[in-house]
Amino acid sequence: MKRYIEHHERYPLARMVCVIMLTISFVCPISACTIFILTDGHYVIFGNNEDWTNPVTRIWFVPPGTGYYGCVYVGYNDGWARGGMNTEGLACDWVGGFNENWKSDATTCVRGNPTERMLESCATIEEAIAFFRKHQESDFIRAKIFIADRNGASVIIGVRDGKLQFDRSERSRGFGYAFQTFSECFAKDSEITVTNSASILHACLQRGKNATKYSNIFDLKSGNIFLYQFHQQVDSIRMNLTDELAKGGHYFDMVEIHQQYSKPVLPLLMNMRRFIIDEFPPISDPDPKVTNHISKVIEDAIAGKMRAEDYNAVLWSSISPMQQDIQNDLKRFGSIQSIILVEYNIKMNRQINRYSFEFENIRSLMQFELDDQGKIVSFKSEASERKPGVDLGE
């Protein structure tokens, strides 16, 4: 469970800041999510209830490439995978609500989301264990990851007594918010079927503020995917990983998946694509004054000196009460190292520029829209990437 941002077509500055922060750090409610594996040597079923506050849920498919497996990911509209499954039958998800004192001794950092890097490169739990021994993952101070493979083996990785621990098993088991309910349900009916697994997930729903937003079942041998949204009363849907990957990279909004499934696929959004920032090389800057102005606006925000004259009236009325929060968040990114124009458009007297920002602690792809007076109308954070070795958690 990582933090989220509500869906908007355009983000004012405060929401833009939130998008960046939420895609690179991990804050969990107490006792969030329930995960289990059911295995009997023939069937291997991985089930997950995703508990959080954001209703904008998504599922997306990233085809294989040179050096990485194809994957299905589940999560929210920030494009940061909470869990998923790959073509080798390895699946994972996180349980939040921990607060551990720990410092990683791993020697290597990955770009972007370590969960995604692990799923696209590992086929078994032993390979996943080796991955997390070698690669840094700061979220272990706040959460534990449950990983299972198509052989029925599973591991729960988390911190205990200041050290990274690996709890292996080859049996059916559950973990997380409704562990006791899972145990009671499985004791009554241990038959390993999708129907029984869905019944267990329904019994393990969390309600209230951090209610379960979606439930998923992965059949690790067949690659079948079953998606449930019990609270939203959306009918379940069945998909197959191989079939979906054959369509190319695409996604679905979970609450609209039945309507979207019969239509042409929705291509992956920027924040779902792998290393998207690399896809935008620098271009010649036709108006360096605007670029310098944008850089100064962000520097002023970091310094707590935002100016009303830099924004149009509507945007300023929205962000002016949030200046202290904006400053606090931006300061965590560190100073601006560079700002590079990667796309330039003029539409209906509006200048729309896309920039690659290099901060001290993160890289970010941002879009700015300015009116004919040079005032900022909107911000949009399209992708961000924490720099290797940087922890921007609470």
Walk me through the topology.
Blueprint: H1 13-24, E1 34-39, E2 44-51, E3 57-62, E4 71-76, E5 83-86, E6 91-96, H2 114-119, H3 125-134, E7 143-148, E8 154-160, E9 163-169, E10 173-176, H4 179-188, H5 194-203, E11 212-219, E12 224-229, E13 234-240, H6 241-245, E14 250-253, H7 257-261, E15 266-267, H8 288-303, H9 313-319, H10 323-331, E16 336-347, E17 350-359, E18 362-370, E19 376-386
Antiparallel strand pairs: 1-2, 1-10, 2-11, 3-4, 3-14, 4-5, 5-6, 6-7, 7-8, 8-9, 11-12, 12-13, 14-15, 16-17, 17-18, 18-19
Helix pairs in contact: 1-10, 8-10
Task: Describe, in plain words, how this protein is organized in 3D.
By secondary structure, this protein is of the alpha+beta class. It folds into 2 domains: 31-274, Penicillin V Acylase, Chain A, CATH 3.60.60.10; 277-386, Nuclear Transport Factor 2, Chain: A (Roll). Helix content is 23%, strand content 33%. It contains 10 helices and 19 strands. A 9-stranded antiparallel β-sheet has the order 9-8-7-6-5-4-3-14-15. It has a 6-stranded antiparallel β-sheet with strand order 10-1-2-11-12-13. Strands 16-17-18-19 form a 4-stranded antiparallel β-sheet. Strand 1 and strand 2 (44-51) form a beta hairpin. Helix 1 runs parallel beside helix 10 and helix 8 (288-303) packs across helix 10 (323-331). The radius of gyration is 22 Å and the shape is globular. The protein starts with 12 loop residues before the first helix and ends in an 8-residue tail after the last strand.
